[in-house]
Amino acid sequence: EVQLVESGGGVVQPGASLKLSCAASGFTFSSAAMSWVRQAPGKGLEWVSNINSGGDITYYADSVKGRFTISRDNAKNTLYLQLNSLKPEDTAMYYCKQGPYRGQGTQVTVSS
User: Fold this and answer.
1) Which secondary structure element, helix H or strand E, spans residue 106, and what is its range?
2) Contact (CB, 8 A) for 83 and 19
3) Low-confidence ranges of the chain (pLDDT < 70)
4) CB 36 within 8 A of CB 81
5) Residue 81: what pLDDT?
6) In 3-state terms, what secondary structure has residue 82?
7) Helix (H), strand (E), coil (C) string for 39-61
8) Which residues fall within 8 angstroms of residue 104, CB to CB, at 6 or more apart?
9) Under 8 Å between Cβ of 58 and 44
């Protein structure tokens, strides 16, 4: 059974940083491309970033490029998302995703 468990969200002020984690199990993590997506209140799912299985190829949505960094530790079966220079418009539930599967999410709220 695929399990994805996100953590690391919180309430922060604009300009702050957070690091999200996603603990994965139930599949061969080191062979799987992974993604982060987010959903702001009242809006649909928005793709944020992708990373390939080896961790050396990454892609970002224009809205987060230069501020967010996706990474992974295949030895720990863990996916990360470093969020820097956070803006109020980054407020959303953040999910890690593998194929059709995603976790329960971790809430990021950016507010002064």
Assistant:
1) strand 106-110
2) yes
3) none
4) yes
5) 98
6) strand
7) ECCCCCEEEEEEECCCCCCEEEC
8) 5, 6, 95
9) no
Rounded to whole angstroms, how far apart are CA atoms 110 and 112?
7
CA quadruple 53, 54, 60, 66: dihedral positive or negative?
positive
CA angle 109, 102, 111 (to 5 degrees): 5
The contacts of residue 56 (CB under 8 Å, 6+ apart) are none
Residue 25 CA to residue 22 CA, distance in Å, equals: 10
Q: Are 34 and 96 in contact (CB under 8 A)?
A: yes
According to DSSP, residue 16 is labeled: -
11: three-class secondary structure by DSSP: strand
Ramachandran angles phi, psi of 42, nearest 5° = 75, 5
Q: Are strands 10-12 and 106-110 parallel, antiparallel or unpaired?
A: parallel
- Predicted confidence at residue 99, as pLDDT, reads 94
Q: Which backbone phi and psi does 90 adopt, to 5 degrees?
A: -85, -5
